[in-house]
Amino acid sequence: MTLARKRRVGEPLARLLNTVGFVMGSVLTSLGVVMVAAVMVSIIAGEARIASGIGAAAAVTAAVGLGLRFSCQRPRAVGLKEGFATVGMSWFIVSLFGALPYLMSGAIPSPTDAVFESTSGFTTTGFSVLIDPAAHPRGILFWRGLTQWLGGMGVIVLGVIVLPFLGTGGIQLAQAESSGHSVDRLAPRFQDTARRLLMVYLVITSLEMVLLSAGEMSGFQAILHSFSTVATGGFSTEASSLAGFSAYTQWVVTIFMVASGVSFALHFRAFSRPTLYGQSSEFRLYIAILILASIIVTGGLWRDHSPVDAIRVGVFNTVSIATGTGFTSTDIGLWRPALQIMLIGLMFLGGMAGSTSGAIKTFRIGVLAKAAFADVRRVVRPRGVFVTRFGRSAIPLEIVEAVQSFFLFYMLIFMTSTFLLAFIDANLAEGLDLVTATSAVASSMGNVGAGLGQVGPSGSFESIPALGKWLLSSLMIVGRLELFPVLVLFTRDLWRR
Q1: More confident residue, 310 or 388
Q2: Average pLDDT score over residue span 349-353
Q3: Which of 268, 282, 372, 465, by CA, is between 20 and 30 Å from 194?
Q4: 98: closest CA among 149, 137, 136?
Q5: Whole-angstrom Cα distance, residue 345 to residue 327?
Q6: Which of 100, 33, 12, 30 lies closest to 69 in space, CA to CA?
Q7: Tens-digit pLDDT profile for residues 100-113
């Protein structure tokens, strides 16, 4: 290969690495600044040692971010390839640096556990290595809740914080993070769309804070639980999650979990035209699934609870699992096996596209069902022409194929990872039962955060070996990014001309 040809081949890779470095430098610099909020909470709470540890983590993060920013040139534009590389790598890097406050404050001394907690926060999963969160300093709890709130915004953060430095490329970043469906733009410029989505996010968070504060929660508890609810995260300040709070608090959280599983773009549009909720096919399917699942679960609890408690417990936990929030109001590990299987199935659903929820999402569930029905009709009428429709809209064939590929990869990764987790634990620990391994993997990929068996409400992650925690951490990121942005990082096509 001639020198000129080598130069032509190397230039695209250099541009790609430069763009990734500049964007990640901007993100890390912003992350370091955000950590200062946790430092302030620690100072107000009189936690000097914790404040100094988080402050050191903020300084290191900001310094690395600034170093990347100044060592890379501002890119002229961000293409789809750069968008995939940036989004895919950013979540891994942010999760690593997000672990520094835990490590440098001494709150979580194990690097594996610290990264696990950080990844669980930023991906809005909700799994935790903290057995009793209430026993930990307020600065740590605030940082823990803040990671979920920031992670829930996802690409909105990139749109508001990073894009002003790029000038273009926002839609490429959004497409990379929301693979499988089109990006719902509220304005011609994606940066303006991101601002409007952020406004909706802030309004919903603030409203829940006010309503939770009107109950028995303290202001601090209301803030952190609002962070977790709107992000569909599931971190709580209590070891028993929301089991110790009143029926009023649980119903308030239920309502906001449902709202957080709805597309934030739909919320924005429906603010002036509420009838748009009913006109959305995905919204109707989303609500129908929640109602049907709640009726089934409530019916299974009817014999062991009073009617009022059966409805409250059934609806709360069904909505929590289906939306990927992960709060619990009881020990779901004590439910009948049939109900536990139902909960594992709900972990695959998720909310609407454009929400903070994870898993497969309602849009894809609807498209898969309609495509399967069309295939059945095609068997009966081989010469017929059948169009896959979701509501009144015809779904293009390439979208149907993308959704089917997503589902295939999702189930393949789920089955492979369940085997790997069971294999790892069988060789390095006592061995996980099938319910534990299945729920842990399904919950990690769906960013749910509620498990069964040894990782259920009454269990912990102490029995999971370090290698298993790294596997689950990776699955959280894979699930949060909806597979493809992570998968393409391991293809040659991304890194070559």
Answers
A1: 310
A2: 87
A3: 282
A4: 149
A5: 17
A6: 30
A7: 999 999 999 999 99
